Amino acid sequence: MLFLVHKNTVRAWLRSGLEPIDERRPTLILGRTLARFLHARRERRRQRCKAGQLYCVRCRAPKTSAARMAKYAPITTTTGNLRGICPDCSTPMFRRVSLKKLATVAGDLQVQLPQAEQRIEDTSSPSLNSDFSHEPETHADAQSGE
Q: Is-above-0.85 flag for pTM?
């Protein structure tokens, strides 16, 4: 039980073509055989997104976002997620993308990039609970209680 999977999962793998070492009990499987089997299984099921497509988790398929619009949400300085809405089931769709490849991956999607947050001191009217409008209190004023 190296992979910590249920015994029925291993039985299903054996029924779908995973080759054991021999027919004796306990059933033994070579690690490289299992790795090849799982890799081939993953590649058969894999659905690659084309340019302009995002992956819908509910539909389990790559699709073009509703209204051909997406938002870019940065994760690190070099990568982020494209987020859109599925045109069929209206659930969020995602695609991880490198910032360098954003234009290529987006295809004909209109991508909305995030705007930089404005600093409170740069605003014309700071928040109500700010002290920017008051004179700075000096150390002498604080000691005298004024």
A: no
